Amino acid sequence: MDLLHRRDSIVLTAIEIMSELGIQGLTTKEIAQRQEISEGTIFRHFKNKNEIILAMLDQFSQYDKDIMNSLRVRDMGFKDSVRYFITSYAEYYNNYPDIVSLAYSYDVFINEAQLADFISKIFKERFQFLIYLVERGKERDEISQNIDSESLADIIQGVFHGVSYRWRITGYSFPLKDRMLQTIDMILDNLEFEK
After folding, report:
1. Burial state string for 26-61 with b = 16 or more CB within 10 A and e = fewer than 16
2. Rounded to whole angstroms, what are the CA distances from 12 to 8, 18, 67, 97, 141?
3. Res. 7: pLDDT tops 60
4. Could you tell me the pTM of the whole model?
């Protein structure tokens, strides 16, 4: 296995371990055992456990850039943009449920400044992007100017996080995308869309 693939493989294994065993179970020994390599091999790629976690968070955030760039380029209305945003994440989480554990790891990393800053940055960028979608909807007269952009972004983000968290803690017991879209449509269909 070449160096780049080994590094990526270590990160994916670390995400899997964190999902299964939590942060306490995420050790270089556990990663090495699952990868069938020595701990020394891990340290050729990463200086320490925090560097592995930063790589995990970077993996988690890469999908954000793709979704945001895609929505900036597409000429979609507000409701379709929000649905695309929600659907994209729901499909990503559904196909890769282990990554969801990272979405709720901020409190775990709060005492590690570098990790807390990184995850905070991810969520701030998502929130700012949702505000951008709301503002774009207002500019296109798709949403009432009376709607507070931050509040609507909070609602959208809250639906996304609340439903995905419940999905995770119930053992992925319902169709994530369907539930997210059903909930977000109920909200969006009841907004004032006229000026």
Report:
1. bebebbbeebebeeeebeebbeebeebbbbbbebbb
2. 6, 10, 21, 12, 43
3. yes
4. 0.84
